[in-house]
Amino acid sequence: MKAHLTRRYKFAAAHRLHCTELSDAQNRETYGKCNNPHGHGHNYVLEVTVAGPVDAATGMVCNLADLDGCVRREILDTFDHENLNSRQEFEKIVPTTENLAIVAFQILHRALNHAHLERVRIEETSMNSFEYAGGEEVLA
Amino acid sequence: MIYLTRKCEFSASHHYYNPALSAEENRRVFGKCSNLNGHGHNYTLEVTVKGDVDPQTGFVMDLKALKEILNREVVEVFDHRHLNKEIPEFANLIPTTENVAISIWNRLKDHLGAAKLHRVRVYESDDLFVDCYGEAA
Question: Which residues of B are catalytic, by number?
């Protein structure tokens, strides 16, 4: 039978929501205090869901040590205690948590050889979260 | 269609060990979970049932009945037990959270009356949970 396994990780990062194609006034109107020039930060919670058949020998969908190692190497070591705007992944896109979820999904989709990546969910605060499960969107 | 979720908790011990593998391989695959003396968790179980709302009662399913079924079929069976040693399906099946979720699915699916089992979610800790929808692999 198929099982879906979800693991939670935490990282802290800074960002500023600012679109270079908008005027300062439009940015202010669109993003409010998230547009403050010096940025701000969040304690992000990342949920990674993998899915597949349960291996008969191990009882596992995916070895947690492999999953933890991949997420640490590809996401946590990359984004923890960084300013997202200064990362090359966000050179051309605004580091909203929507885009962060898409970026994290794409990175993990390429890197995770141990199991099928089904979904990425990111909590920006305890009051909001964003999910991405793949799609046709292409980031610049 | 409405989805209703009920939560309950149980505590149990287990260990991960496949006798077909060497002790060294078990250690490599399962890490500290392979310690034969076992270890334990406070599990949280979320069971979601689905169905239409009964026009007379306004219920998808009587919550009290669901609570009693969860207690009888899962909590009273698993709580304060050693999963490998005391739960029959784990005599020859490693009680990973994946297999615990599948076991609970199989234990509940025929006991819910008119409501249909939608999802079994088992939290081993705050940072790890498994969902089972009864899908073929």
Answer: 33, 80, 124
